[in-house]
Write a structure and sequence with these properties.
Layout: H1 17-28, H2 36-46
Helix pairs in contact: 1-2
Length: 66
């Protein structure tokens, strides 16, 4: 994945919401009490290019690659 489509260097794969939340927490070393869905939603609002990397039936935002 190119740098502009993956500025945070997350693994190039499809994630479940839970896996994506774990990846975010591991990447940033956070240990918060936010539910996975809230953390993922906040992250996708800031970095919408990752929305196509999350396996979900209710995608809110589509990235330019989809």
């Amino acid at each position: 994945m190119s740098e502009d489509k993956n500025p945070l260097g997350l693994e190039d794969k499809m994630f479940t919401e839970e896996e994506f939340a774990v990846a975010i927490r591991n990447k940033f070393g956070t240990n918060d009490n936010l539910p996975d869905s809230v953390l993922v939603s906040i992250f996708i609002d800031k970095y919408p290019m990752y929305s196509c990397k999350i396996k979900t039936s209710k995608a809110k935002v589509r990235c330019s690659c989809c």
